[in-house]
Design a protein that fits this description.
single chain; about 350 residues; Aspartate Aminotransferase, domain 2; Aspartate Aminotransferase, domain 1; 2 domains; seven-stranded mixed β-sheet; 9 helices; binds pyridoxal-5'-phosphate
Length: about 350
């Protein structure tokens, strides 16, 4: 039997050691006598898990004391409307359209104000990131909005715009804690957990304390960042299981040497696959501009539909699972988030080279 390598774009692979630990203590959480799933979200045990997870996130993200960290629900997609509900309210904001996740965020923002798409890579199927030096922001913007890693199209911002007076907001759902990022230009970032952090069901939000007072007051309680902060994410029952599991994934990241450690491995993983693309004499094509290539979601195509099908079938037989590209892009997508093992990426690269040679 070949080992299984799961390239799922989300929900995605989790560290084996974390899954085993959860399995071992699922029925009886140490010291509790019953499962963590059966415990009150206001118990001492759970409050410690919540506080630990928050502290680790703050430290791994390098946030210092200027930010509040929240655990929210409704998926990353709920942030598409919660952000404008809190911070737009009839005003205008600048959005940088780099793919389907930003397009969806723009659609939701229209319910609350005037999102302006000030730059877009739609003209080339979203295969690049607009150049920072060409961006022209509107001074009357409530905020600037971008998506750090475009999960579907396979592009990634390598550095970020930084405006002196307009708050910057970033969707980091598919590359949070995968690389060192200076968060100081960001007034708010968020990430659904199910790609790089844990299971589906919890969304991490970090909001800068000086941005929070600008949030609207007359909005539904569950959508209010202010209320979430005042109640330390415990206004209602939070998603206890995803938070508990995410807390262990954060320990795992720390064991890997923190963000620096995982970044180094992530570069090697992406390098192994992109090298196979670049060395294939055009057999594989990566549509993404080289300098904007994502290190999390690697997309490429083969010369024909037939060869793509054959590639996927042979890959599957070898244990490389879930490589089919997103329905809107086609081809192949290899998602190699933090928990994806280096050897899996190296083996995929070797398989790609062998497949190209014989085809
Ligand atoms: C997956 C993803 C989302 C949507 O996440 P949900 O939790 O399913 O709502 C949003 N943005 C990005 C960048 C994503 O990768």
């Amino acid at each position: 039997m070949n080992p299984i390598y799961n390239f799922n774009p989300g929900p995605s692979v989790l560290p084996q050691s974390v899954l085993k630990k959860v399995q071992a203590e699922l029925v009886n959480y140490p010291g509790l006598g019953y499962s963590i799933l059966e415990d009150s979200h206001r118990s001492k045990t759970f409050l410690k898990i919540l506080a630990d997870a928050k502290d680790k996130l703050k430290s791994l993200l390098g946030l210092g004391d200027k930010y509040e960290v929240l655990f929210m629900q409704g998926g990353a997609s709920s942030q598409f409307f919660q952000i404008p509900m809190n911070f737009l309210q009839g005003k205008k904001a600048d959005y940088i359209d780099t793919g389907s996740w930003v397009s969806k965020a723009v659609k939701e923002a229209k319910l609350y104000g005037e999102p302006r798409v000030i730059a877009s890579s739609k003209d080339k199927n979203y295969n690049y990131i607009p150049k920072i030096k060409d961006l022209k922001f509107n001074e009357d913007s409530a905020y600037i909005y971008l998506c750090s890693n475009n999960t579907i199209e396979g592009t990634q911002w390598k550095s970020f715009p930084n405006h002196a007076s307009i708050p910057l907001i970033g969707d980091f759902s598919s590359d949070i804690l995968s690389r060192k990022v200076d968060m100081s230009p960001f007034a708010l970032i968020y990430a659904g957990a199910q790609k790089n952090l844990g299971p589906a069901g919890v969304t991490i939000v970090a909001v800068r304390k000086d941005f929070l007072p600008l949030a609207a007051e007359k909005i539904p309680t569950m959508c209010s960042y202010k209320v979430m902060v005042e109640n330390d994410s415990l206004y209602n029952t939070p998603p206890v299981f995803p938070i508990y599991l995410t807390n262990y994934v954060l320990d795992w990241i720390i064991e890997q040497g923190g963000v620096d450690g995982v970044e180094k491995i992530n570069n090697q993983k992406a390098g192994a696959i992109y090298s196979a693309v670049d060395a294939s004499n055009g057999f594989y094509t990566c549509p993404v501009a080289k300098e904007d290539r994502s290190f999390m979601n690697i997309v490429y195509t083969l010369p024909s539909e037939e060869k793509t099908e054959k590639f996927l079938a042979e890959a599957k037989a070898l244990g490389f699972l879930n490589l089919k590209g997103h329905r809107s892009v086609g081809g192949i997508r290899a998602s190699v988030y933090n928990a994806f093992p280096l050897e899996g990426a190296e083996k995929l690269g070797a398989f790609m080279s062998a497949f190209a040679k014989k085809s």
